[in-house]
Amino acid sequence: MKINYQDFILLLEKQFGPLTPQAEHCAEDFYENYDLLISKFKNNDLQLFASSNVLAQKLPSQNNSKYQTFNGLAILLVIFGIILFFFNWKIALLTIAISFGSKYYSTYLKNKSSTNFTDNILKKISQNEFDGFFDIAQYYIAGIIQIRTNLGSAHLPLLPSSALTGAENYARMRT
């Protein structure tokens, strides 16, 4: 159920504090295109994509930042493997091979965490329309997610309606 614009802004301000003019313009655009965005999401005409790096930085939970551990391990193992080349090349090759495996697993975790994040938001839309919509709006304004259609894509500082129209309309920076 759609709430009025002032309540929508109050919910966002409760989450972020006072909104910047850019965030307020994006929130206004989300609110104006509420029905169209909901119908497009329900028909799978709109897709969400989350940046894994931004997700891990802004929502540093165990699931979002676990890949960084394996990425760091891969770097350490490569350095250790290079040093080992001076002593035993067979163990050095094994260490470097393990580092590549760690890097591959890190990439897998990175992609999986962002995919799971966006899938959970889309499931929330089907369960509770406004809560899912609010999550999309807040994560878009935070710069975590991107909205894509066959016409175009939108990410901050573009207005969310840019994904619907294909035209690049930027959110105003000052009032």
What does this 3D model show about the protein?
This protein is 68% helix and 6% strand. The chain is built from eight helices and three strands; from the N terminus they run H-H-H-E-H-H-H-H-E-E-H. The chain has a three-stranded antiparallel beta sheet with strand order 1-2-3. It is elongated. The chain starts with a helix and ends in a 10-residue tail after the last helix.
Short description:
68% of the residues lie in helices and 6% in strands.
The Cα radius of gyration reads 21 Å
- Using DSSP, what is the number of strands? 3
Order of helices and strands: HHHEHHHHEEH
* Poorly predicted tracts of residues: none
Which helices and strands, and how do they pair?
Layout (H helix, E strand, L loop, with lengths): L4 H12 L4 H12 L1 H9 L4 E4 L1 H7 L3 H23 L4 H39 L1 H13 L3 E4 L4 E2 L7 H4 L10
List keywords for this structure.
single chain, 175 residues, mainly alpha, 3 strands, elongated
